[in-house]
Write a structure and sequence with these properties.
The protein is an alpha+beta fold. It has 16 helices and 29 strands. The radius of gyration is 31 Å and the shape is globular.
Length: 590
């Protein structure tokens, strides 16, 4: 039935004011209101299931969730009333949607006021106090480096090595069913710094065929030896970030703790190798939305899904929880330190005078110390980003933070200096760590090739970044670095012949098992270069598999390379077959 069109305004074609419009309710208004409510409830349930908002006044997600539900009701009301098809019903739709529209406005107002009262503009001093940072002496408190605790690979290399370990899955009957996740978590496992790498289903089809049994295990990468192994988990992991529906671990935990502000989960294993997901419990300590900090943690068993809640004090003090390494994520710690460094003297000082203001440098890394994992980042003045004034170490379990006053170049500057040493090789310098090399502040960084595996190591003096050394082994690098320090009248007593360095020398090239490949052929091309004061020969062989590869041979290690000529038959032994330039572990010429 067509609607009755009656002009009650007496204004002809002139549009009336809204307040004078006649409200014409649609037929079966009560039924349509009920349908709107039912549709909104259904929409809200589905939205909650996938959005997983927190029912907490300090959560922006809650206000967004409420706003979307109210907006959906308004849209549903316009649809069922027929206002979208027939303008005569628009006054009714507007009037009947007035309450949810007002509610949306109230929600928006609460959010705006919440941001204002939480703003650093008004609460700068509160933000500056969110983390306590104590000053400490580099020489007295940072122990001289023990290479048994220094990671020699970065996250990118971890991913390459971890992928190789998945070959173990073929033996278990899981050919091409799983891949590694892109998140690698550094922890201490049985007094060794490692990265644990969770796996995921290769695609949604593989999830359908394997979800019932769960994920068979995870990959453990030793950051010292650069070896990876696949760890079978008894009972398989039924809860993970790679799962869906009820076994998606974030949803599983959210349903049990609907009012808790939680950080993204971190994957860890206890000292027996059993896997868990660690959810840091958060609170907004400044105003409504500011001052994010950790107050505890939810520990979820990755096999059974059983959850347990602990306060931050319990995690810091209970002996049975000392295996937990990552409660405070690195981004949160950097954020809190930057508040501390910028706002000690108020907001305006951070913008205008900038007296006594500091900020973290770009990037961070991790150090294993005292059976804990520490986030490391350099510190620079806000008025200069070319040098550091020191660096900060923050315990990721306890949030204990210490600042060490060390002046010199930034990590980026050190990377550039190391890059110059290996540019002819086409290698890449990783993000550096600042170590105590016999009381000499020194940047240490792995050097990677095209394969993303470690090809060598570099050391750069913090105070004088022109003092930089590269070596294919740690002992070679340290030896060259010690010589450079002596030439520049910097006193040190570096010993390259220690058990720790010898252990690190066995790191290899990141293979999961020790292996060697022998390549033979006639020499078709020879090039030479001087790298770090050492002659290196680049040999190309007439070998079909390696016809586009140069083998780098150091004259100091294989003296017979200096008498090699084109056309000579040669044999090269290598530990990896990846990359355009591959270091030789042995060389013979006939």
């Amino acid at each position: 039935m067509d609607p009755i069109k009656v002009d009650f305004t007496g204004g002809g074609d002139k549009s009336p004011d809204r307040k004078d419009q006649v409200v014409i309710p649609p037929e079966r208004r009560g039924l349509k209101i009920a349908l709107n409510i039912i549709a909104t409830v259904v929409f809200g349930v589905i939205l909650y299931y996938f959005m997983l908002p927190v029912f907490n006044v300090k959560s922006i997600m809650m206000y967004a969730f409420i706003g979307l539900i109210l907006a959906f009701y308004c849209v549903a009301n316009y649809v069922t009333s027929g206002a979208l098809r027939t303008p005569d019903y628009s006054p009714y739709a507007r009037k009947s949607s007035m309450i949810p529209k007002i509610a949306i406005g109230v929600v928006g107002l609460v959010v705006v006021v919440g941001f204002i009262v939480s703003s650093v503009f008004f609460r700068a001093h509160s933000y500056a106090k969110i983390i306590d940072v104590n000053s400490a002496s580099f020489e007295q408190e940072i122990e001289k480096v023990d290479f048994k605790t220094v990671p020699t690979i970065d996250e990118e290399t971890t991913g390459v090595i971890a992928t190789k370990a998945l070959s173990k899955l073929d033996e278990l009957g899981y050919v091409s069913q799983f891949t590694i996740q892109p998140n690698y978590f550094q922890i201490n496992f049985q007094d060794t710094p490692v990265r644990v790498v969770p796996i995921q289903y290769s695609n949604i089809i593989k999830w359908f065929t394997n979800a019932k049994n769960g994920l068979p295990g995870y990959v453990l990468v030793d950051t010292i030896t650069q070896k990876a192994k696949f760890v079978d988990v008894d009972g398989n992991m039924k809860y993970s970030t790679a799962d869906h529906f009820a076994h998606y671990v974030t949803r599983h935990v959210r349903f049990q703790y609907p009012t808790y502000l939680l950080d993204d989960p971190a994957f860890e294993v206890d000292e027996t190798g059993h896997p868990y997901w660690i959810f840091a419990k958060l609170d907004m300590t400044i105003g409504l939305f500011g001052g994010r900090d950790v107050t505890g943690a939810i520990i979820c068993d990755a096999v059974t899904g059983e959850c347990a809640e602990y306060t931050i004090d319990e995690i810091r003090t209970k002996a049975e929880l000392q295996w937990i390494d990552r409660v405070y994520n690195a981004d949160l710690l950097v954020e809190q330190y930057n508040y501390y460094g910028r706002y000690q003297s108020g907001f305006w000082n951070s913008i205008l005078g900038q007296k006594g203001t500091y900020s973290s440098t770009d990037g961070y890394s991790y150090l294993a110390m005292n059976n804990d994992v520490y986030m490391y980042t350099g510190v620079t003045s806000l008025t200069s980003d070319e040098s550091i004034t020191g660096f900060v170490l923050v315990n990721q379990r306890t949030k204990e933070a210490k600042y060490y006053n060390v002046s010199g170049t930034t990590e980026t500057g050190a990377q550039g200096s190391a890059q110059e040493l290996v540019q002819d090789l086409g290698y890449i310098a990783s993000f550096p760590l600042l170590l105590n090399i016999d009381d000499v502040p020194t940047y240490f960084m792995p050097i990677k090739g095209d394969s993303k595996l470690v090809k060598g190591y570099a050391m750069v003096n913090v105070g004088q970044y022109s003092i930089a050394a590269y070596g294919s082994t740690i002992s070679e690098c340290i030896g060259k670095y010690a010589d450079l320090l002596e030439k520049n009248n910097i006193k040190s007593n570096i010993n390259v012949d220690t058990d720790a360095i010898k252990d690190a020398e066995n790191a290899g090239d990141g293979e999961t098992e020790d292996s060697a490949v022998t390549v033979t052929g006639a020499i078709t091309e020879i090039r030479t270069a001087v790298i770090g004061g050492e002659s290196v020969y680049y040999i190309k062989l007439d070998n079909e598999q390696f016809k586009n590869v140069y083998f780098s041979v150091k004259a100091s290690s294989f003296e017979n390379v200096v008498i090699a000529n084109k056309g000579d038959n040669a044999t090269v032994t290598i530990k990896t077959d990846a990359g355009k330039i591959i270091p030789a572990s042995a060389f013979e010429v006939k």
